[in-house]
Amino acid sequence: MKDNKLKRYNIYIEGEWINAYNGETIEVHNPATGEVLGYVPNGGEAETKEAITAAEKALKEWRELPANVRSGYLKKAFHIMMEQQNELAEIITLEQGKPLNEAVGEVQYAAGFLEWYAEECKRVYGETIPAWSPNKRMIVIKQPVGVVAAITPWNFPAAMITRKMAPALAAGCTVVLKPATQTPLTAIKLFEIFETAGIPKGVINLVTGSAKAIGKTLMEDERVRKLTFTGSTEVGKKLMEQSAKTVKNLSLELGGHAPLIVFDDADIDKAIEGTIASKLRNCGQTCIASNRFYVHEKVKEQFIKKLKDKLKNYKVGNGMETGVEIGPLIDGNSFEKVKEHIKDALDKGATLEFGGKAHHSGINHKGGYFIQPTLLSNITNQMLITKEETFGPIIPVITFETEEEVIKMANDTNYGLAAYFFTESLSRAVKVAEKLEFGIIGINDGKVSSPQAPFGGYKESGIGREGGHYGIEGFLETKYISMKI
Ligand code: NAP
Q1: For range 99-126, the mean pLDDT
Q2: What is the CATH number assigned to the segment(s) 258-450?
Q3: Ligand 1 centroid from CA 336, angstroms
Q4: Is the CB of 462 under 6 A from ligand 1?
Q5: How much distance in Å is there from the Cα of 464 to the middle of ligand 1?
Q6: Would the pLDDT of 5 be above 80?
Q7: Whose Cα sits closest to atom 41 in ligand 1?
Q8: Where are the CATH 3.40.309.10 domain residues in the chain?
Q9: For residue 241, is pLDDT > 80?
Q10: Does the beta carbon of 237 sit less than 6 angstroms from any atom of ligand 1?
């Protein structure tokens, strides 16, 4: 990848690697340095229509293949991906910024979806329902929804693609993917892997370029029967509106604003470990990152002291360098937002316990936005940081006294993706897990994502679930067949 720094990459339609029809390209930058890594086609409406046509053409044969044959393609892709994990991880770090060891972790997690759905593929069962009449038979079968539009974000450039494409392909759907403009090189590498695995022409198609033009074309085309989107709640709502005209099937994985609660009966070391796992991964840029830290009055001092001691050891820098545990933020907009959240909190009376330093060292403001892990206390509900997704390595601590009060504060949000809490009481664990209005709950656990488990949110955090046996359901229609015999 390093040798190909200024390579011009192509999009992939019907098994061909091509340029945008107008020849235009978009620069891809390294967020650690601002350097240009390469160029991808600036595709739009015409390329997207072509990709939909290819996907529709390929659908007929792909959906008819026996499940074990589709499974074979996915398994092959899984093995190639694992063989090439270091190369893929390097691409992720170069274009996304996360430390290399985290990128390797993402590749393994991403490959896990190919492996899981290669198996799940064979278990798309129907049903026979006992009829109320002796001369009737009632059968339910599952069929692929059809052509799928997949739109993915930059924070997990490999995993967000396989989490969608693996179940879609397993179900017998064909796909048009639009990856995030900041991280298209990982998507291109994944498509090279799928191509090597022999996935037939037209089954998978990749278009990079203008989000608005590609998104609108995908949403308005009646041949596209399903949208699977991961990204911000704001864009998710726009796509929902655009898809209404053709009543598309929707899976939306949107923003989060996760609470992390430390009860007075918690093991503080476990709480610190969970805080770091849920907050500092990917420099705080995950949808399930803990964003509000509710710590019981009685254990606040102990929690802050132990956390400060840990944070001192974190090395911030270019993710390609050995020993770096926190990479750069993705861009200048994120940098400004994170700094604004810190400033707003300090202006309104918060205490800076650790960190707070931010610096910019990149070329032409295209990268190099670094921020220290930051611990703030004396946080109140008036501060921006308690209301919005921060997407940065900031830990704002709010204290509480009762279980009832903290559950109310944790649930007081339009988001409902993930929540974490720490307690050594079994009955509290069960009760609190049931009361929190979130799709994913970590009990004494800050690392919850896994290919075999359902992932998704309540409220404005989304619709549907990805992962596990739940993940394939979104790509299947249910057909009821009534027979008179
Ligand atoms: P974003 O701005 O919503 O972008 C996500 C994707 O949507 C990108 O491919 C983007 O393309 C595309 N897009 C933007 N505007 C569009 C439009 N008008 N029509 C069609 N597509 C459009 O989100 P992001 O900043 O990349 O990602 C961060 C967000 O994703 C956070 O809110 C995070 O919580 C959420 N997220 C959720 C999950 C989950 O599973 N729930 C997982 C990861 C991230 P361009 O890149 O070309 O703009």
Answers
A1: 98
A2: 3.40.309.10
A3: 18
A4: yes
A5: 17
A6: no
A7: 253
A8: 258-450
A9: yes
A10: no
**Of 253, 325, 353, 460, which residue is the catalytic one?**
253
pLDDT on residue 106 = 98
User: What count of other Cβ atoms lies within 10 Å of the Cβ of residue 316?
Assistant: 19
- Kindly state if the Cβ of 392 falls inside 6 Å of ligand 1: no
- Which tens digits make up the pLDDT trace of 402-426? 999 999 999 999 999 999 999 999 9
For ligand 1, atom 18, name the residue with the nearest CA: 212
With bands split at pLDDT 50, 70 and 90, how would you rate the model's confidence at 292? Answer: very high
Three state DSSP letters for the chain: CHHHCCEECCEEECCEEECCCCCCEEEEECCCCCCEEEEEECECHHHHHHHHHHHHHHHHHHHHCCHHHHHHHHHHHHHHHHHCHHHHHHHHHHHHCCCHHHHHHHHHHHHHHHHHHHHHHHHCCCEEECCCCCCEEEEEEEEECCEEEEECCCCCCCHHHHHHHHHHHHHCCEEEEECCCCCHHHHHHHHHHHHHCCCCCCCEEECCECHHHHHHHHHHCCCEEEEEEECCHHHHHHHHHHHHHHCCEEEEECCCCEEEEECCCCCHHHHHHHHHHHHCHHHHCCCCCEEEEEEEHHHHHHHHHHHHHHHCCCCECCCCCCCCCECCCCCHHHHHHHHHHHHHHHHCCCEEEECCCEEECCCCCCCCEEECCEEEECCCCCCHHHCCCCCCCEEEEEEECCHHHHHHHHHCCCEECEEEEECCCHHHHHHHHHHCCCCEEEECCCCCCCCCCCECCEECCEECCECCCHHHHCCEEEEEEEEEC
- Judge whether residue 2 has pLDDT over 90: no
Q: Which regions of the chain carry the CATH code 3.40.605.10? A: 11-254+462-484
Q: What confidence category does residue 6 fall into, taking pLDDT thresholds of 50, 70 and 90?
A: confident
pLDDT score of 68 more than 90: yes
In this predicted structure, the answer to whether residue 3 has a pLDDT above a threshold of 60 is: no
The finding on whether 30 has its CB within 6 A of some atom of ligand 1 is no
Percentage of the chain beyond pLDDT 90 is 98
- Tell me, yes or no, if 283 is annotated catalytic: no
Confidence tier at 364 by pLDDT (50, 70, 90): confident
* CATH code linked to domain 11-254+462-484: 3.40.605.10
Average pLDDT, the chain: 97
Average pLDDT over residues 253-278: 98
pLDDT score of 466 more than 50 = yes
Amino acid letter, 72:
G
Test site for ligand 1: of 230, 461, 466, most ligand atoms within 8 A of the Cβ: 230
Q: Is 47 in the pocket of ligand 1 (CB under 6 A)?
A: no
Task: Judge whether residue 1 has pLDDT over 50.
Answer: no
